[in-house]
Structures are given as structure tokens and as C-alpha cells.
Amino acid sequence: MAARTLSLTPPRRRLAADSRLALLLRSPVALLSALVLIFLLLVAIIGAPLLQDLANTQNLRLRFFRPFSLERGWAYVLGADALGRPMLAQLIVGARTSFLVAGATVALAATIGTTLGMVSGYIGGVVDAALMRISDIIVTVPSLLLALSVLFVLEPSILNLILVLAVARLPIYLRVSRAQTLEIRERVFVEASRALGKGTSSILWRDIRPLVVPTVMTVAMLEIASVMLAAAGLSFLGVGLQRPDVDWGTIVSEGREYLTRAWWATVFPGLAILVTALAANLLSNWMRASGDPLQAAAMGVTASREEAARP
Amino acid sequence: MAADTKVAVTSVLKVEKLTKHFGQVTALNAIDFEVAEGEILAVVGESGSGKSTLARTILRLLDASSGRILYRGKDLLGLTAAEMRATRRHIQMIFQDPYASLHPRRTVFELVSEPWRVHSSVAPRREWPQRVAALLEQVGLPQAYASLYPARLSGGERQRVAIARALALRPDLLILDEPVSALDVSIQAQVIKLLMTLQQEIGFTSIFISHDLALVRLIADKVIVMNRGRIVEQGPTQAIFANPRDDYTRLLLASSPELVGETATKEQEA
Questions:
Q1: What is the ipTM of this complex?
Q2: What is the pLDDT of residue A17?
Q3: Do A11 and B101 touch (CB under 8 A)?
Q4: pLDDT score for B257
Q5: Residue A191: its chain B contacts at CB < 8 A?
Q6: Whole-number Å distance between alpha carbons of B193 and B242
Q7: Which of A28, B54, B60, B75 is the most exposed, having the fewest neighbouring CB atoms within 10 Å of its CB?
Q8: Is B79 on the interface with A (CB under 8 A)?
Q9: Does A14 touch chain B (CB under 8 A)?
Q10: Would residue A175 count as lying in a domain?
Q11: Which of residues 5-44 of B touch A (CB under 8 A)?
């Protein structure tokens, strides 16, 4: 198929993204996962500010109000907790915190980890050795234990939670990007760039980064789910967020005490975590497969993407 | 040596006692040679004789162990990293394997305009489309290729892109590291012809690394014969081919099928 554009305009960057979207539309599981995530995200962004007050409104007469009844309005459709706070409103407000913590943690860890990993892999030597030993140390300490002890000492706030989780998750990005860089560094096009007179930073940014980022993106998507679970775990253990900040883990943790009397106070937030983690996992699995030229070919990828992925 | 007799011509590159060790192995052993303005110097030798190491050491893609590399009187080994990067504008290299030397995620337009991103004084951004168009025409590629990724192109087409990229900076010295040996035989002639035409048009000096002796005989002005990291013989192409003085050169010439006399082949068959 010959390209029809005869004029020498710089190429359109959106082409790859377009064909990836077309691919997504043909994969039902991935599409459903993406839609679920987008829906939850929209609910969290739009709903949370509106329902902030309602979620914290205590009404002891509505203590353990049963779910699936519209008697008290739609906010109580999933029941109420031990203090008579509406579950649905709490879930929506909690969604914002959960997504914020997971998103910010992953973004922070991925950016710093990938940058350090690429520098470490490309420069090598002492820098590489030092960074990798630090990464080994972080890996050796169980991340939950690390977060637990740090948050026990520091005051548990959203910012501290994000920082602690980001540090604990750093080694994954560091190792993935370093390993990729080590391989790409030896390719002839990097040598060709050096022969052109490019400096180290330019080679890292323009030659190596475009090939490392897709892999890191896939890992990051997978990490969203794990971080959300880790944050929920910390909240569940009581060193995560404190009221009035609330995330899904906090709600599960509080509802646990009344599990026999009010199952809905635990099950619904638990279900929210499960659905989000599942959707994120399925989507990242699809991203990995579609980013792999071999598997992408089997998925009926368009020619341009497949070729762009080939060396 | 032959180079000493030519005094009048200016030397573009002069290599003195260039040595490169890889651990215990001596990849380059006291290499001395000189390339004059507009000349094509061929470097021949078997695989592992140090030809590619020589090219990479001249460009400082590998660090030399000792010696001097004088580019127009300036010792490249004495330059700082930043000065060397700036100097690379004048010395370009074309690599052996065009399947590996082009970034897979970059279109032909981006590949060819990349050098101007690095050396921004050569061409302002608004001139890039015209300049890329001109370069593509020069190397005989259709304009529509500008928007393609290298994976769409054949080996010969990719090497043309690599040539266009190298020429984008109008280099003074072009190092060709076996530029056609990774290509189909049918394509090799086209690419060589293109290179020779461009050399005549633009007049760059070049170091041509090859193991194809028939080709070297055709295009080179001077020849260096390398074996195990040292130069065993050097001189004008005619002299080397007509009257090889070193045993290794004779062996090399004898093992090149194109150069074996008709009678010798028949005698062996009989």
C-alpha cells in the first residue's frame, strides 16, 4: 500500500494511537475493562466533590440501614454503615482517594524509576552499581512492612502514603527500564546517533526512551491495581488514611468489625477494589500483548503498527 | 611510503601510531596512514583484522589506547567530549547493516532531519522539508517515503536513507564501513554507483572499508591492507593489485574469486 501523502509534511504522530484504539474496539474484554475504568474514574472525578458532605453525614437512626431500598433516596441504595453514613456516597468519595493515591504513586514511581533505570543502564559503572544495590535493598524489605513502619513514624496523610508507596514500587520500574536500556544501548542506531554527534541526554531521551516507555506503561497499568490493593491494605491495617480522608481500604477496614451484622459495609467496597484491580489487570495484559509484535500480529494489528514495532 | 611522496595535496586525516587494546588483544597496532583531500582510501582485510575497529576509533566511538588522529591538523583524541561532538559534523559514518542503524520508531523524514536537530546551525527548522526532499532525491528515493518507517523499506532503500542522513551535514570526510556487504548482490551495485556519483558531485573524502577486492580495485585511489590489527601493506590501488609485496596481500588477492585468472580455475578443475 503506497502512502498517498506526497507532500513532505512531518509525519502525524497520532497514527499509531489511532490504530491502537481501533484494535481496542475489536477486543471485547479489553474494551470492557477500559470502559469500567473510565466510568469509575469519571464517577470519582465528578461525583466525589458533590457528595463529600453527604458521605460524612452521620445519622444514627439509619445505622446499618439495609441495602437495595430506595426509601431514603438513592444515596442509601447500598445501605449505610455503623454511623449511618450512606455507603454509595462513601464509595464514590473513596474512589477519588483510591484513584488519586494509586495514580499519583504509579506516576511518581514510574517517572523516577524509569529515568534512573535508563541512566543507570546507559552510563553503567559506579552509578549503575550504586542504584542497583539501593534497589536490591528496597526489594529485600517487604513493601508493606516498609510502608507500615514509615507511616507509623510519620503522620499518615495522603502525601506520605503516596511517597512511601512510590519508594516501595520504585525498583520494578528501575529494573525493567534498566534491562531494556542495556539491550538498546548496544544497538547500532545508538552508535549511529553518537556518530552524528548526539550527547548522552539526547540519546537517552530521543533514542532509548521511545523504546522503553511502552514496556513501562504496561507495567504501570498492572501496578495501578497492586498499588490500589497495597493502599487498601495499609488503610485496612489502620496506618493508611484517617477520617475524614477515606478510601476503599478504610471503608473495608471499618466495616469488618460489623461483618456479621452488616455485610454490605465490607462487601461493597471490597467489590469495588476487586472490579478495579481486575479491570486494570486485564487491560494491562491486553496492552502487553498488543505491544508485542508477535502477539499483535495474531490479534490482527494493522501493518503500520506492526512494522513500527519491528527492529 | 607512498603517502610521503605526495607532498602538495592537503591531508584531511592523518593517523599516527594509533593503537587500540581490548584487554589482552591488540585490535589496532601502531596504525599509520594519511588520506588526502578528495581521495578514496580503501581499507581491506579479512574479518577480525581490525577494519571496523579502526573506523570506530577514528570517530572516537571507541577509545584509542594511544596514538594520534589528526583531522585537518587537529588531534581528535585531544578534544573534549563537547568539542568532539561538534567535530562529528564534519566526519560522518555509514554503517554496515542498514537494518540496525536506523531507529525503528522514526520515519524517514525524522531520520534524515535528525542530524540538524543535533547541529542546529546547519539548517533552520523551516528549511527541513525542502532539504529532506532534496536529499531524498539525491539518493534516489521517492518523496513519499518521507512518511514511512524503516520497516517498510528494503535493505537497499534503508542504506539510501542512511546515506541521506550522513550527507545531511555535508561531511568533509565520510567513513563507509562495508556499506553494501549486508545487501543483496543485485542491490550492491546500485548503492555503490550512488555513492560514487555523490562522491563526484560533492567531493567528500572517504575511507572505504571493504573485503570486496574487485570493488576496491574499481573505486579506490589508495589501499591499506590490514591483518591482525596492523597494516601489512599500503599504496596506490594500481600498485597493490599489480605488484603485491606482502605475502598476506598476495594471499588475499589469490582468495578473491573474481581476481583468479581463468586458467588457474581450469587447472584446478582438471
A1: 0.84
A2: 60
A3: no
A4: 66
A5: 56, 61, 95, 101
A6: 24
A7: A28
A8: no
A9: no
A10: yes
A11: none
- What is the number of domains present in chain A? 1
Domain contains A218: yes
Q: Is the pLDDT of residue B130 over 50?
A: yes
Backbone angles phi, psi at B210, to 5 degrees: -160, 160
Do the domain assignments include residue A7? no
Cα of B248 to nearest chain A Cα, Å: 31
B92 reaches A (C-beta below 8 A):
yes
Residues 6 or more apart whose CB falls under 8 angstroms from that of A13 comprise none
CATH number at residue A63: 1.10.3720.10
CA distance A38 to A44: 10
Size of interface A-B (CB pairs under 8 A): 97
Q: Give the one of B95, B119, B147 whose C-beta lies nearest to A197's C-beta.
A: B119
Tell me the mean pLDDT in the region A142-168.
84
Show the domains of chain B with their CATH numbers: 1-90+173-259 (3.40.50.300), 102-170 (no CATH)
Across the interface, which of A194, A307, A309 has its CB nearest the CB of B61? A194
Q: How many angstroms away from the CA of A208 is the closest CA of chain B? A: 10
Mutate to test the interface with B, among A196, A203, A301, A302 (most CBs of B within 10 A): A196
User: Is A311 an interface residue toward B (CB < 8 Å)?
Assistant: yes
pLDDT cut 90: percent of chain B above it: 43
Q: Which of A177, A178, A170, A171 is nearest to A121 (CA)?
A: A178
Q: Give domain status of residue A25, yes or no.
A: no
pLDDT tens profile A162-213: 998 899 889 999 999 999 999 999 999 999 999 998 889 999 999 999 889 8
pLDDT exceeds 80 at position B20 = yes
Specify the residue for cell string 581528535.
B76
A153 CB burial (10 A radius; 0-12, 13-18, 19+): exposed
| Distance in angstroms (rounded) separating the CA atoms of residues A295 and A299 | 6
Average pLDDT, whole number, for chain B?
86
pLDDT of residue A303: 47
- Between the alpha carbon of residue A142 and those of residues A149, A167, A234, the distances in Å are 11, 12, 13
Asked if A1 has any chain B CB less than 8 Å from its own CB, the reply is no
Is any Cβ of chain A less than 8 angstroms from the Cβ of B121? no
Res A15: pLDDT: 52
